[in-house]
């Protein structure tokens, strides 16, 4: 959990720049793909060391999914 959270903290500003540069839909889709693929790789890990690096990458995907979900829900509910 720490590896996922630390990578989220470090790269949150990078995701903000990417969302402003590209559309929200593309940023969300890319983040979902990154999170899903790294989740699959994490499930195939045999040792603890093999588990850490995919969790860091999964944190990058999580970093894009969670703030984007809140933003999209706000757009849907308050901007009909």
TrEMBL record:
GO terms for molecular function: transmembrane transporter activity. The chain crosses the membrane at residues 26-48, 60-78. InterPro entries: MFS (IPR011701), MFS_dom (IPR020846), MFS_trans_sf (IPR036259). Keywords: Membrane, Transmembrane, Transmembrane helix. Residues 1-80 form the Major facilitator superfamily (MFS) profile domain. It comes from the Archaea. It holds the Pfam family MFS_1. PROSITE patterns: MFS. This is MFS transporter. The lineage of its organism: Archaea, Methanobacteriati, Methanobacteriota, Stenosarchaea group, Halobacteria.
């Amino acid at each position: 959990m720490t590896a996922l959270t630390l990578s989220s903290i470090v790269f949150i500003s990078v995701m903000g720049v990417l969302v402003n540069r590209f559309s929200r839909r593309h940023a969300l889709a890319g983040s979902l793909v990154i999170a899903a693929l790294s989740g699959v790789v994490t499930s195939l890990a045999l040792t603890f060391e093999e588990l850490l690096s995919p969790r860091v990458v999964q944190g990058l995907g999580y970093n894009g999914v969670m703030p984007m979900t809140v933003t999209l829900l706000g757009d849907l509910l308050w901007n009909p």
